[in-house]
Design a protein that fits this description.
heteropentamer, A alpha/beta (355), B mainly alpha (273), C alpha+beta (382), D mainly alpha (288), A: 355 residues, alpha/beta, ten-stranded mixed beta sheet, 14 helices, 10 strands, disordered N terminus, D: 288 residues, mainly alpha, MetI-like fold, 12 helices, 0% strand, globular, binds adenosine-5'-triphosphate, binds spermidine, binds magnesium ion
Chain lengths: 355, 273, 382, 288, 382
């Protein structure tokens, strides 16, 4: 059911890519490599190769928050000022369903079809990858600062251990935090009941009331973790390793962890779709993908990147955070697809507990 | 008692006052210090690592920061201009004229100052959305909002200056053959000007600094405070401290420079003859 | 070099009336002719309408009735900036943001004068302000500011210059010095000055003509000497200087023309008063005698004044003020009267309180006022 | 002619006041009205994108108050304490500037306003740095046993209130200064001459005469502080969230405009009621 | 009922000195004894240190040297609110937020008086303010405010009441009325009043003792009559009233004791001056003659003064001020002197400008001052 304008109303602009060699995109913080001394980042290289001037804004901290920022424009068929967003699967699905996302021109993204890893093909919300292209995948688990506290193995420890009191953060992303809690409840995040949901929520509520939780965060947890303002938290896999702080440890809770993917999508009023497609195609080149993965330490969605990694940093070739084995993937879970009513019910309940 | 001790005893209030002032400057001091922090080595942004000029030499390095600064300054200047003009006119009406609805107007002018920003910002957002402008949120809606909340402050500032103006001066001017227009431009305006200037400065700082109302009505437009807010999520780039310090020094420079200039001018003219 | 080279006219106020919006009538049917080139002083108690009158002349207030003419021109409704009239305001109202020279040049520039700079120079020299030209008003002393206000007005060579207590804010010594200055400048430029003041001495020493105003009307006007020696109402008698007013009954009128006199019985003594100084037709009246006309001598000593002499008065107070002494005497009929005596030194000291004295005055200086008038009129009310 | 001029004069007043009146009517009063209608709309049938229809749903208010009253209470308490702190600190500084600064008056006054230009977000963030758990201040306090071993300042009500105090201090100082500066120093001397000790001079003369500034300054502090959410966000924890956080969250992430609007209206009503009561008590009605 | 029921002491200032932080010495080694219960007036030009002196007595300014005693008690460093001294400030400094009654009750309440209300009632009655008790200061007239300031101070029955130009802001008529009031109250309550004023007439009529201050020192003090008739310096001679100072050379000293005189040659005329009025040891001096002691008569007419008489003077200006006329005379040696003449009416009018006149004065009223002193001292400087 298309919400608001969408494609039905013919809300697609003409592509100005031929005239304007620019690309405006929003992505999550700390999600791309940066120039440093002699090191030339993938993005700089892309701009050199294509002549496209990229304005890259790392302003996505939380899917819902970002959605709130753009929903009015998208709904009214107004430009958001962005040609591309990188949003998590469920949010990408919601936007595609609303008719706010442009179809990619397959001819322009040959690398996508050629190199997308099999586990990310044929997702229910975009079976042919007509609308989206994965940027990175990752896991949500526990991180802690080992200079401050001992190992934190389970979510229950995280929420109750007294040495962590007031030094724990959880993510504002409902699916990450609640997924882990459902797991610790013994429930399956991809298929759970309202009761299980309620129990999991109660756990947070209690921990919060006890003063165990210091904050609900987006990506900013990483600084506080390094600095010692927090001792342990729910974290995203790549961030911890990429922080290059030997005290910071990421580990899957004993109950298992969550997996997700972030996807590049082009909104209907994005006026530089062809440039966006060039970007997608470029990042689906295995060499580029390997270079990016070596920097951000997230799961690389590009087939052939593992081989290219050999040339860049052999020590990373077997890193399960980047190239997870089937075994490793066995302990990961996805979050149940929710219809609109359930989604907004859960989101409201979650918001009330964390806000 | 030591000499310092007795000085402090005699100047207790002044000493305490200076302490309060120092308290107000603790963050500014840290901001200035951090603007010289070399953060390239480690991503830990909470500690002073080592000294560098780099941040000052490349203030615009962080993606989007200077763009957001440009947006903030444009909005600041535009809203200052419009609010100052509209507000000054209103102040004149309120001080110089007795008209029906004057007290209502006084109330309407007071209200925005008595309304929490979150309420003002959200009501404006509700209006924009209800009026079908939800999609147009951005530069113009922010500008409109800023003008709105600056007007009251301008009126209050200019009004008090105007009320203190000796009305005999205008009468004297008209006695000396100045018509209404000349009286305004040669006497009233120059005398009220310091008040207008103060109002403009206040407007600019309020607009430049605003986050709450802006955040609600900006859509995807990013102002400097919004950039900082967003950047706080990933660790504020040290260049933000450069901009913070720079703006502060600029303001201080303008005010103190203006003061010195006017003093020197008064002095210079007196000794010129 | 006199500035008064053009022919100008007299200032004529006819039936001038001012009712303020709140209904208060500040000026009531005022008639006045002020001859061109004269120095005219307007005296009167606070609130009597002096400022209102001046403001109507300047055009800063609109008359509700009556007309204002300068020469033949009716300026009753002209805009203030179109009138050949300038005002020196009580608190000067100098423009604080302009230098002295710019303040002075303000009028000429508005009128598009050809060479304001040289005019300014000339006027600043006249008012001895040349050295202050570049300063701002706040940098000047009170006296200097006063001169700037004057210069700023005079430079326009208005037909009429209005001065609303321009010296009110100065202390006594400075005030006296400024009076001399003002008078000098008026004589030099020859403009018509209309000067409002509370200070009687100031009015009398400076003006050609003094008008005493009371409750929105002119009570009496004339040359200072005439006004002082021959007041027509108790108000004027009390307000302009001091007067001893003693109850009297007319017992006869004699002579004609310049020699006509009226004989008045004053508690048993007969006083002879010139008909020109009699301002009542009734049989009762107030005999007015100025304190300096009251001559006294301890009882029994020779008293050198012809005419009325009385004995049986007692000194009840003696107040030494250096140049003179004020005696308060209790008269045989109980009334207290005031006597002013110059300390010439002839007496060798003060007359002690309690001394019995004889009192006399020359009859030609007494005046007779209407007994229906309030004997306290013109004295400070609370 | 006279009356003609008067009519024109009146029109001039309307011409002058017009732009401000229209601007505020359209972009302040009208939005407030629109906020009111949104607050009475059904959240179920509308959305931020498609708008809301007025259904006079009072339930929004009941729910907003029922669910969020702790936020409201916390806001009022934090803002109240911060206002008191501002009053004490601000009074000291305003007094020093007005009576003791001599020729440094202007300079000190400028120094009060200058920090405005360093974005207050930047300054608030640097408090986060100053008060960090492993920072100098916390360590010192721990060494002095003022704070326990695992004691902290950040993410406590203290940090939030301190942040509010810090950020709104200039708004207290300026009105205070204005009214202190008007007090004739001779009055203080006269009181000393009439046997008033320094303390009595303050309570009997200076303080009553500065009341307009006290009222103005506290209002300009209390009102925005009550609605603030930046300090609670940056320096607080989930347990120190203020009503502003909630309103902002409902408007943005939750997209629940009716409840957000209802909460805003409640906040506004409470503030207006308190202001009226306060101003009446202080006897400074003419101030408004 | 007098309030002066307790025994109090004299106010003694000894070697009092005040240097302001900027280095300016406002008061230099001032010695002064003011007897208990007296009305003492301090006169002096602007900036001479009067206010500074009073502020040191009140404790609002700290003396840099010297001591202040009341009776035997040293109050030099006592806190202002612990001194038995009260001040009536120039602009009253009434508390604008308190009613008149509250203003007046302020002092007693601070001292924890038992029944302030009845004291206030009594004082308000004394100062005729009973009806104003509930009003705020802004609702009162200037004169009423002045009385409140007075009441507020008097109610505390201080040993010493300091008045710093309390009448300076009033207009002349009101001022004269308030002087009478002030004097009446002082006599009624019997406190020591120290009154600073610019107005000489005020000082002379009100005070038992007048001190003339100049540049931080007391130049001369004494009873008004003594001070006026026998000034010791040109400053006092010029500042207190006016003086004609004429160059003279001592030609001889005769007699002893009370009869001792000094003979002075004044442009050819010999003046005989009492030794008690001679304040120079040198051979040259200024002979001082007060204008009211200068008697004139058109040349040839009889002149009734014994002693020195001169002819050849010419009237160059005559200024009529009602009660008297000021004549300016050019003397044969070119100097202009001033003559004050009461308009007794004896002369029947003014002496016209240009008239040749004979001049005389009684020798006992002349005084001789040191020729080393500035003849212009005490006159208004610009
Ligand atoms: N705008 C006004 N509205 C109503 N009444 C006024 C107004 N201006 C003056 N008055 C009243 O008119 C009367 C005359 O005022 P005006 O200023 O002319 O007196 P004045 O003679 O100049 O007194 P002063 O010597 O005190 O200056 C006063 O009673 C005053 O209160
Ligand atoms: N706080 C101060 N710092 C420096 N100099 C001062 C200060 N107060 C007063 N003075 C100077 O001390 C001198 C005496 O001042 P004071 O006020 O005692 O004079 P005054 O005799 O009362 O004069 P006036 O008659 O004008 O009131 C003046 O020259 C004045 O400028
Ligand atoms: N630093 C990059 C973090 C990217 C996180 N993506 C979040 C997905 C949450 N479900
Ligand atoms: Mg007047
Ligand atoms: Mg003084």
């Amino acid at each position: 059911r298309g919400n608001g304008g969408g494609t039905d109303a013919g809300c697609v602009t003409t592509d100005l890519s031929d005239a304007e060699a620019v690309l405006n995109m929003s992505n999550w913080p700390e999600y791309i490599d940066e120039d440093d001394g002699d090191y030339v980042s993938t993005m700089t290289q892309f701009q050199k190769d294509t002549g496209i001037d990229v304005t890259y804004t790392p302003d996505v901290n939380d899917n819902v928050e970002f959605f709130a920022k753009v929903r009015n424009q998208l709904g009214a068929c107004q430009p958001t000022g962005r040609d591309m967003f990188v949003l998590t699967d469920w949010m990408a699905a919601r936007m595609i369903e609303a008719g706010w996302i442009q179809k990619l021109d397959k001819a322009n993204v040959p690398n996508l079809d050629k190199n997308l890893i099999s586990s990310l093909q044929g997702v229910g919300w975009d079976p042919n990858r007509d609308y989206s292209a994965p940027w990175q995948s990752g896991f949500s688990g526990i991180a802690y600062n080992k200079s401050l506290v001992g190992e934190v193995q389970t979510m229950d420890e995280l929420l109750t251990r007294s040495d962590l009191k007031g030094k724990v953060t959880l993510l504002t992303e409902m699916r990450d935090t609640m997924g882990l809690l459902l797991l610790s409840e013994g429930a399956d995040p991809s298929n759970f009941t309202d009761d299980q949901w309620g129990n999991a929520l109660e756990k947070i509520s209690k921990a919060r009331a006890d003063g165990q939780i210091r904050a609900f965060t987006g990506n900013e947890y990483i600084n506080d973790l390094a600095n010692g303002n927090i001792a342990a938290c729910v974290a995203w896999s790549g961030d911890v390793a990429a922080a290059e702080d030997e005290n910071l440890v990421f580990l899957p809770p004993q109950e298992g962890m969550m997996i997700w993917s972030d996807n590049m999508i082009v909104p209907v009023q994005g006026t530089h779709k062809a440039n966006a497609e060039k970007w997608i195609d470029y990042y689906f080149d295995p060499a580029v993908a390997a270079k990016l993965a070596a920097y951000v330490w997230y799961v690389c969605p590009v087939e052939g990147a593992q081989a290219e990694m050999e040339k860049i940093d052999p020590s990373l070739v077997d890193n399960p955070l980047i190239f997870p084995t089937a075994d490793y993937l066995a302990q990961t879970h996805g979050f149940m697809a929710l219809d609109e009513a359930k989604a907004s019910q859960y989101e409201k309940e979650y918001a009330d507990v964390i806000g | 008692m030591t000499r310092l001790g007795s000085w402090i005893g005699k100047h207790l209030m002044l000493t305490l006052g200076i302490l309060v002032l120092l308290y107000m400057y603790i963050p500014n001091f840290i901001v200035a210090l951090m603007s010289f922090n070399d953060s390239s080595e480690s991503r830990n942004l909470y500690q002073f690592q080592s000294f560098t000029w780099d941040n000052w030499l490349n203030p615009c390095e962080p993606q989007g920061m200077c763009e957001s600064l440009r947006v903030s300054i444009s909005i600041g200047l535009l809203s200052t201009l419009v609010a100052t003009i509209i507000g000054t006119l209103a102040a004149f009406a309120l001080v110089r004229h007795r008209f029906e609805g004057r007290s209502t107007m006084n109330l309407v002018l007071f209200l925005p100052m008595a309304t929490p920003e979150i309420v003002m910002g959200s009501s404006l957002l509700a209006l924009f959305v209800a009026a079908g402008f939800g999609g147009q949120l951005g530069f113009w809606t922010v500008l409109i909002a800023h003008i709105m909340f600056c007007i009251s402050f301008v009126v209050v500032t200019v009004r008090s200056r105007l009320a203190g103006l000796d009305s005999n001066l205008e009468k004297a001017a008209s006695d000396l053959y100045a018509n209404e227009w000349q009286t305004f431009w040669r006497i009233t305006f120059p005398l009220v000007f310091p008040g207008i200037l103060a109002a403009a400065l206040l407007s600019f700082s309020l607009s430049f600094d605003d986050f709450i109302i802006t955040n609600l009505n900006s859509g995807t437009t990013v102002t400097f405070p919004m950039f900082v807010w967003g950047a706080a999520q990933r660790g504020v780039p040290m260049q933000v401290n450069v901009i913070g310090t720079l703006m502060f020094l600029l303001a201080l420079g303008i005010v103190i420079g203006g003061e010195l200039l006017s003093r020197r001018r008064a002095h210079g003219k007196a000794s010129a003859l | 070099m006199s500035l008064a080279d053009q022919a100008r006219g007299d200032l004529k106020l006819t039936g001038l009336h001012k009712r303020y919006p709140n209904g208060f009538v500040a000026v009531e049917s005022l008639d006045l002719v002020i001859p061109q080139g004269s120095f005219f002083a307007l005296l009167g108690p606070s609130g009597c309408g002096k400022t209102t009158t001046l403001r109507m002349v300047a055009g800063l207030e609109e008359a509700t009735k009556g007309t204002i003419h300068i020469g033949d021109e009716d300026i009753t409704y002209a805009k203030p900036y179109k009138r050949p009239v300038n005002t020196v305001f009580q608190n000067y109202a100098l423009f604080p943001h302009l230098t002295i020279a710019e303040n002075v040049a303000f009028g000429p520039k508005r009128r598009g004068a050809k060479d304001p700079a040289s005019q300014v120079k000339e006027i600043l020299a006249l008012t001895e302000l040349t050295e202050q030209a570049g300063k701002k008003p706040a940098q000047l002393s009170g006296g200097q500011q006063q001169r700037v206000a004057l210069a700023r007005a005079i430079i326009n060579r208005p037909d009429v210059l209005l001065l609303d207590e321009p010296l009110g804010a100065l202390d006594l010594k400075l005030r006296r010095a400024m009076q001399v200055e003002l008078k000098r400048i008026q004589e030099e430029v020859g403009l018509t000055f209309v000067h409002v003041t509370h200070d009687q001495e100031e009015a009398m020493t400076m003006a050609d003509t003094v008008a005493v105003m009371n409750k929105g009307r002119i009570e009496q006007m004339g040359a200072p000497y005439d006004l002082y020696t021959n007041p027509q109402t108790t108000f004027v008698a009390n307000f302009l200087g001091r007067s001893n007013l003693i109850k009297g009954t007319v017992v006869g009128r004699e002579g004609t023309g310049d020699d006509a006199v009226v004989k008045v019985d004053m508690h048993g003594t007969i006083a002879t008063i010139k008909a020109s100084k009699v301002h009542t037709d009734s049989d009762h009246g107030w005999v007015g005698i100025r304190p300096e006309k009251v001559l006294i001598q301890p009882a029994g000593e020779a008293l050198d004044a012809p005419g009325a002499a009385l004995s049986g008065a007692v000194v009840v107070d003696a107040s030494y003020i250096g140049v003179s002494t004020d005696y308060t005497l209790r008269m045989p009929w109980g009334q207290e009267i005031t006597c002013f005596e110059q300390n010439t030194g002839r007496r060798g000291g003060l007359i002690p309180v309690g001394t019995k004295v004889d009192v006399s005055w020359r009859p030609e200086f007494a005046f007779l006022l209407d007994s229906a008038q309030d004997v306290e009129a013109g004295l400070e009310e609370d | 002619m006279a009356s003609l001029q008067r009519v024109f004069g009146k029109n001039a007043a309307y011409l002058l006041i017009g732009p401000a009146a229209i601007w505020l009517a359209v972009f302040f009063l009208f939005p407030m009205l629109s906020l009111l209608t949104t607050s009475l709309s059904d959240p179920a049938t509308g959305s931020p994108i498609n708008g809301y229809t007025l259904t006079w749903r009072i339930g929004n208010y009941v729910e907003a108050l029922g669910d969020y009253w702790p936020y409201m209470a916390r806001s009022l308490m934090y803002a109240g304490i911060a206002t008191l702190m501002c009053l004490v600190l601000g009074y000291v500084l305003a007094y020093a500037i007005a009576f003791k600064a001599g020729r440094w008056k202007t300079v000190m006054l400028v120094l009060v306003i200058a920090p405005f230009f360093t974005s207050f977000l930047v300054r608030t963030l640097s408090w986060k740095l100053i008060l960090a758990d492993n920072g100098f201040i916390v360590n010192t306090l721990q060494t002095l046993h003022i704070l326990g071993e695992d004691g902290r300042l950040l993410a406590t009500p203290f940090a939030v209130i301190m942040g509010l105090t810090y950020n709104f201090l200039p708004f207290t100082i300026l009105p205070l200064y204005t009214s202190l500066e008007k007090i004739d120093p001779k009055l203080n001397e006269a009181a000393a001459d009439l046997y008033a000790s320094p303390f009595q001079r303050f309570t009997k003369v200076i303080w009553p005469l500065s009341l307009p500034g006290v009222v103005g300054g506290t209002l300009l502090t209390f009102i925005p502080a009550t609605g603030d959410y930046i300090n609670a966000s940056l320096l607080g924890s989930p347990n120190t969230q203020m009503v502003g956080n909630k309103i902002q969250q409902l408007f943005t992430t939750s997209g629940d405009y009716p409840h957000a609007a209802a909460l805003s209206v409640i906040l506004m009503v409470i503030i207006v009621a308190m202001v009226m009561f306060y101003v009446r008590r202080a006897g400074t009605e003419e101030l408004l």
